[in-house]
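help with this.
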Amino acid sequence: MEEESNVTSSSPSTPVQRLRHRKRSSTEVLDGDKVNASPLLVNDRNKYKSFMVRTYSTLWMIAGFVMVVYMGHLYITAMVLVIQIFMAKELFNLLRKAPEDKCLPGIKQLNWHFFFTAMLFVYGRILSQRLANTVTADQFLYRLVSGLIKYHMAICYFLYIIGFMWFILTLKKKMYKYQFGQYAWTHMILIVVFTQSSFTVANIFEGIFWFLLPASLIIINDIFAYIFGFFFGRTPLIKLSPKKTWEGFIGASVTTIISAFVLANVLGRFPWLTCPRQDLSTGWLQCDADPLFKPEPFTLPAWIPGWFPWKEMEVLPVQWHALCLGLFASIIAPFGGFFASGFKRAFKIKDFGDSIPGHGGITDRMDCQVTPMKGE
């Protein structure tokens, strides 16, 4: 770590050093604690240019997200998998050292071996029975899938042991510390990426609603925190993220809670979003609505002003649950971002990647999703 943090040359010699040099924030110095005198977005001279780039990228991401949701459960699961692969790639690269990697052929492949073993464990556990339900018409495929389900845990354990033996057999003198560091770093990434993904994928097949609502609330909170901070932010919120403000935090919280109540009412009326999926087909779903999604009359409290036109309204029971999700997304989700900010400061980088213009990498966009998905 000390050797990495001291790389300050204006012409770095390795690809990893050049990548980190390019990503260093212009508003940070190497100690990671000092920022320029005007870090807030409201005082940023280039904020409108940045705002347009970020808005353009956001619209493309939202459009793509809506299209995938429309395509159904299996495609959403595939989207989650792709996001996990990009996140893992960005996180793996944080501790890469080109000279050491050249002396250790196969170390990158070993990291990905553990990654795909974890992927098989998580996705196999959740999707195996649904796969069996999909191939019931073909006796051979059904028996094959049933056998794989029966020995799923044994297969995953065997693959992990292969990786463990691979790691031991490739240990090299004078490289032990780096190799064990990579081994520990890989397992930490797997915990961060796949622990939350098991909840996410399970939510998808219990009804897209349970994936779409929490994910949308995080997106709404992130967008409005940026907007309120952009136009009204004056009071810094936390030192880990100098551009985050109390105005942005409070404005986003109120907006997210209101959005949760309204959005739950809208999404909860579509069977495509509320019906669980028991197989891996992509056809349209129809089912008897769960009581959570059946409208109930609600009489407004007496303190509502008399000029308000409605005295009674129909409310889906899930809307009250959505208020809790909105509160959770408003308070807990930002701490995922703060955690990522502290992490980036520790590595002296501005972003985890540069794949999304105006946003950074995939991990930069998913940092707030990780913690709330576990809780929700």
